[in-house]
Write a structure and sequence with these properties.
The complex is a heterodimer of chains A (about 240) and B (about 250). Chain A is about 55% helix and about 15% strand. Chain A is built from nine helices and five strands, in the order H-H-E-E-H-H-E-H-E-E-H-H-H-H. Chain A is globular, with a radius of gyration of 18 Å. The longest helix of chain A has 26 residues, at about 175-200. Chain B is α+β, with helices and mostly antiparallel strands and about 250 residues long. In chain B, the strands form two sheets. A four-stranded antiparallel beta sheet of chain B has the order 2-1-4-3, sandwiched between helices. In chain B, strands 5-6 form a two-stranded antiparallel ribbon. In chain B, a hairpin with a 2-residue loop joins strand 3 and strand 4. The radius of gyration of chain B is 20 Å and the shape is elongated. Classes of the chains: A alpha+beta (about 240), B alpha+beta (about 250). At the A-B interface, helix 3 and helix 7 of A face helix 7 and helix 8 of B.
Amino acid sequence: MTDFPNRELYASLVYLADNLVADFDVVDLLNRLVSSSLSLLNVSAAGILLDDQRGSLRVLASSSEETHMLELLELQGSGGPCRDALTTSSVIEVPNLDAARDRWPEFVAAAEVLGIQAAYAVPLRLRETTIGALNLLCDDQTVLGPEDLEIARLLTNIATIGIINHRLTSQQTLLAEQLQSALNTRIVIEQAKGVIAERTGVDMAVAFEMLRTAARSSRRPLTEVAAEIARGGTSAAI
Amino acid sequence: MDGTSHPRAGYQDAVARLCSTGLPRSAASGLTSVAVSRVVELRLEGLIFASDQRARRVDELQETLGEGPAVLALRVGGPIFRYDIAALPGLEEWPSFAREMAARDVGSVYAAPVQVGAVILGVLTVSGPEVVGLNAAVVREVLTVANGIAQILLDPLPDAPSLSSGAGDAFHLVVHQATGMVSVQLGITLEAALLALRAASFSSALSMSEISRQVVRRERRFTDGGSDWTPGPQTLPPTGQRDDNG
């Protein structure tokens, strides 16, 4: 084991693996993961979506906390690369979104507004079940090669482990419980972002940063701090 | 507005209808009893619906003893699908509840909160006489019905939402952001803020996500007298200038 061909990938994997040990916060972990995917794969935005078991896709993590981007990700529940990745359980590659206008008119139009021109979706798989997808978006027409997609698949595997294991406290927990709990975590974070945005006058992206800073400086899980703020508690400096 | 009051008369019928028609797989698997409790500030606050005597007993016992899957579902803020009464983890964790259930011919109890994120409006509990394991289809069914109940409890309209519209406009993420903002604007709980958004949606004939987008863009602000809408440029980003309360 002398030469690891991709130092940055190696560093990211070690970092993410370290985060999987002991007590970790699922949203925090997945946010780090989508950030890593930006630099590793040279894409402009990335998100992780989960099947909510009720016919919709829900955002679990996004490289941008801006409302428009979150909504673009979620829009794919009614048609888009992520929906297809879920139903087919395979990687969906759209290097030129223009060509997919007829297939997903709503998604392509919304992507265009944000300057997105290429999209990829890699399924999150747990044995025979597909639980969600990693969405990669590019602001140029972009072809991701087999090596890139291999890295993307590696990242989705880490994401899946994170989602499945984040509630280790309970004995034999069912997959459905884990997924619901991960989804709720994200909702609580959106509610907390709203509380912070209203109290301090910042936008949603800044509100998320403030939330993250508050969690780090108090050395508490992001989710716990978010729940406290969402329920009206005043947490450090917010 | 007082958002914590019951949303409207007739909602109990809608919940009863949904529970009676929406859980066929669950019933076929042996989970024949269904109960829905109202939750206020993370406490069980009485039944909205009980399909039979068993459902009523299971619910009453959990409320009285402060033990059981519905109580745990409130504590963890998510569904509890892993307990059958005969299984040891349940017995250890809830000694009185497990004893009472076994004595009353209850083999399985599962619970799913009726919730929108941190807002928990109720708990759906399904139970049956035998020890029954859950499969994915039953889990999906229970979660879908819990979702439908959330919509009914949020809905000031007299007609019940159909299950096919179950994706639920109330569950869009922009609604969660707006809920947080409105809770600060009015100084109320998230539950009340969510109901305030729902009421504004009803009276303005805009969807909850449209109302919420206006709130997030700071074009609409909720005050004690209702909500004020300031028409602004269509794609105005958040202005960033706000009162300095904090």
